[in-house]
Amino acid sequence: MDSARGPQRLIGTISALIVVLTFMLPAAHAAASEPCSYGDAQALLNQGPVAFRLADGSADQPGLGGLVGRCQFRLYEDGATVTFSDEDYFLGGIFLFWTYEELEEFGWTRAEAIADLKLVTDRMEIASVVGGEIGAFEDVPLIVTRFRDAFGPPGHVVYTHHAFITQLPAGEYLVRYTQSYPGFPDFTSTVRVVITSS
After folding, report:
1. Rounded Cα–Cα distance for residues 152 and 13 (Å)
2. For residue 96, what are the CA distances in angstroms to 45, 76, 79, 142?
3. Domain count, the chain
4. What is the CATH number of the domain that holds 151?
5. Is the dihedral of CA 19, 52, 161, 81 positive or negative?
């Protein structure tokens, strides 16, 4: 087996998923009716692939699918601006995954796929922006879920979810995400987060 096929396919898979989800979902924003609760953000952390599969692209969709459009954003959305209320708890996250179709193609077991995904290291930082001046970036620990199987937009996957959950005061922030994988350049994205006053 060509050992370079796995990492190259991971980059391709992430890029393809970014394109699919970018066209499928609206920009995250605070719902006018009810703020996003900590439980909503936890549900997205623990049931992310199911939520994305259920999402119809509408922020006012009821249930788990509706949380995708209003209570979270993806850390890889470089250059995006997302808006929440100061009453919202929200999640910023990224799925690391392999599809079972890819495992079959590579001749990998589930354990080998997990070992490969464990090679990924990542870091998330946040800075406030006041009067156009960017403050110091501070590290924010990411929550890392256990490896699970699920059916999501790309099919049957083995995945882990790296994310943070927070509630912030009104203002503007920059969230910077950096991901490293052996033998490849680091991937970095920055998302502008605007928190409105309720």
Report:
1. 13
2. 13, 11, 21, 13
3. 1
4. 2.60.40.10
5. positive
Cite the DSSP H helix spans in 25-160. Answer: 38-54, 63-70, 100-106, 110-117
- The range of the structural domain enclosing residue 57 comes to 5-196
pTM strictly above 0.70: yes
Q: Cα angle vertex 140, ends 192, 16, to 5°?
A: 55
CA distance 136 to 105: 44
**Alpha carbons 90 and 30: distance in angstroms, whole number:** 9
Rounded to an integer, what distance in angstroms lies between the CA atom of residue 121 and that of residue 142?
11
pLDDT digits (tens, 9 = 90+) for 69-121: 788 999 999 999 999 999 999 999 999 999 999 999 999 999 999 999 999 99
